[in-house]
Amino acid sequence: MIRFALRGLLGRKLRTALTAVGVVLGVALVSGTYVLTDSISSAFDSIFSENYKNTDAAITGKPAFELSDDSAGVAPSFDQSLLPKVAALPEVDLADGAVAGEAQLIGRDGKAIVFGGAPNLGFSVNPDRPEFNSLALVSGDWPAPDEVVIDTKTAKEKGFAAGDTIGVQARGAVQRMRISGLVEFGAVSSIGGATLAGFELPTAQRLFDKPGKLDQILLTGKDGISPQQLVDAVQKILPEGTQVRTADDQAAEDSAGTAGFLDFFRTFLLVFGGIALFVGSFVIANSLSITIAQRTREFATLRTLGASRRQILGSVVLEALVTGVVSAAVGLFLGLGIATGLFKIFDAAGLTLPNNGLVFRTRTVLVALAVGILVTLLASLRPAWRATRVPPIAAVREGAKLPPGRFHRFRPLGAALLAVGGVALVIAGLFVDGLSTTALLSLLAVGVLLIFIGIALFAARLVKPLAAASDPIARWSVVVLSALAWPLFSLPYWLLRRGFWGPGSGASRAGGFVLGAVLNPILLVIVALMALRRAVTSWQPEWPADFPGVLSDRPAVQIGGQNSRRDPQRTASTAAALMIGLALVTLVATLGAGIIRPFEDAVDKIFSGDYAIAAQNNFSPLPPTVAAAVAAVPGVEAVSSVRGGQGQAFGETINVTAVDTQAPGVLRFDWQGGSQATLGELGRDGAILDEPYATKHNLQVGSKLSMTTVTGATLPLTVRGIFKPPAGGSPFGNVTISTTTFDATNPQPQNLYTFLRMQGGVTAANTAALNSALSSFPNAKAQTREQFKDAQSDGIRSLLNVLYVLLALSVLVSLFGIVNTLVLTVFERTRELGMLRAIGLTRRQVKRMIRHESVITALIGAVIGILLGLGLALLLAARLDEVSFAVPTGQLVIFAVVSVVVGLFAAIWPARRAARLNPLEALQYE
């Protein structure tokens, strides 16, 4: 039976290859995800280890509590006088101090240099201590006072060289500096899109507004002193607000934030790999079911010759195992290309990631192979079990079919129960309070999985009415799209073929060739290859006498519609793969619209000014000097900035914001306690809370609140107001205090946003005046309210585009599923097609019939998928206050059109294959 199974696979190479596509693509994404995240992790590890090469220990500022990575809070700097004290310790061999911050390089066009939203890093360098220097000088010299070294990538991309002058913006206005040299970051080949700017220490301290301060001291111990002994010695003289770690521990601490991000990033991408595999499992199960149904007489003959049901089962499972192994192996190595593509996709979306070469680990190989093989085997179990039920008598019956199972009549009820159970799990996950994150995600994942399976199984009952409703849409879709495709593809194709071997004079043939090449140059290559094939194999192409025709062929269309309803279960299974992909795409689109609309409404509710000042990348904080510059513009009636940082209260880290006395002129709150005047009357100890935080800790207007800042200072605050944040979110933290109090207790304060109200509102003159004031701050820009809303929602749209690209893989898998089903049905209907051709059906009509069937199948999947996606989005919107239920009508229409196009593309090859069948040979096909 093993030899029989392997020969069967070799005899059905095309069907096996099409069946394997789903697994190949799913495994490729899983493999590519691991390669991508392992490569990023390796690059980050190299960056952090490079930072502390030749270092035994590092001293840094110590915040009063653990800072989260999603806020503008920074660890405090410490006094420079600590450096000579540490250097004088008998255990210390060398010591050097440094400062760091954000340094925006300015291009020749006067605009900030940004590569994909990556950070703009600035730091001090000391060429006298090369042991601690992570930069390698490529050309020029190390910086002198008021000079800068920049990275080679920025220099190459923007046309700078050593000796040129470049603008640098840090905490103040832009300054022009001479580029003393070009540098690279150690042995790391790429640090993503980050720009590097290095300065000598006094210049860096001035730029970053840290006079007499240091952010870090790097140490090496004397011979015989271990890193831990060095740490113990330094610990004894450290002042409050500082800490010391070994170099390895400091590197691990620096990488902790990236490790958490990479874990989330890996899980995020693996979800889409799982979706592709889930869709692929439907393709595999459907393909194997069709193949087994077509091999009924073959299995019956084996049973007649003595094969047991167990042997039949083993034969089918073995075929699936071999298919899974080969598919997983191909997908594993295809993952390398997927990883490279993902790097480019995230780069295009503004998330440029560091890359030090692709990393292909053993874990990637084991997981990818195991997942691919397991999914294929699980998908094959039901078809394999069906194969064992073939009775031996079927060997002598013409057109014998597999008998239905004992529980077949309960299938609709079971499918409905699965779907209802899935909905119940999703509702429980969304609306039951107190669930852990793991429990919540597990309930949602299992619930959605059951919904998809239940709907897919129940869809057979919906095929006939949906097919009947889709029939006219499919008919006109095929006609319209064929009409559109005719001048773009068919006509040039016909002209090019005429140029090679068509009738007529040499001049007319040459004219056809030239005209066809002009209309569509890509087809020139295709037809050239066809001509080469003709020359080698003496192939004689034929062209339909009625070419080019795009009108509907009613008999062929009617047969195509009947074929889609002939086997509802097969049509439903084929449509299920596309259904899953479009359901998720619809869910993403609906949630995206539901997030953007409340956000824009929130801006309108909170922002009562005329202009907003934001960074060029729309999200980076800006120094207070930017707000001071625009406040001096004539015509500004009110200007207020929102500071951002972190604090600690009730034992937890919270987001803290600050506003100044002009806030009532440009900001509005939905007050639950307090008034608009409260915004400008916070003083030294006043605080405003958002309603959820106040409710959580049972705080009211007049309540006392003690909050710790990053410097360790304790602020006794009195609640002066409580506001209800709008559904779309707000720029304010849990606690909002006055700017004066915030600046006194937070190092390096920065503005998240700055809002203005100007005399005359938004005018060309006011815009020009603001732009002129911001010319010294190229990293900042002035935006109207509408521009601000669009710019802030661009990040959401970029993320949605990434999600669409990732979900497109599942749609691609479903396309191959439709192709596979159509190819298998062509095999199955070979004699039928031969009969139709014999009674007068033309090749064009055969193609139209297959296309029509394909489009109906795609439309069924689209209708169910879009409705299912809207239903899931409705459940999420009902639970999440930040999301409203907004139907993206335009996008849904596009999805429906795309599904029709998918159906047409899926039918191209099967239709061509069916049209080329020889009627006489087809009539003799077994």
TrEMBL record:
Transmembrane segments: 268-292, 312-338, 358-379, 413-432, 438-461, 473-495, 510-532, 575-596, 802-827, 854-878, 890-909
Ranges of residues in domain MacB-like periplasmic core: 16-236, 571-768
UniProt topology in membrane: Multi-pass membrane protein
Domain named ABC3 transporter permease C-terminal: residues: 271-392, 805-919
Predominant place of localization: membrane
Family: Belongs to the ABC-4 integral membrane protein family.
Entry-linked Pfam families: FtsX, MacB_PCD
InterPro entries: ABC3_permease_C (IPR003838), MacB_PCD (IPR025857), Macrolide_Exporter_MacB (IPR050250)
Protein name from the UniProt record: ABC-type lipoprotein release transport system permease subunit
Subcellular location: Cell membrane
Keywords for this protein: Cell membrane, Lipoprotein, Membrane, Transmembrane, Transmembrane helix
Listed PANTHER family: ABC TRANSPORTER PERMEASE YTRF, MEMBRANE COMPONENT OF TRANSPORTER-RELATED
Keyword presence, Transmembrane helix: yes
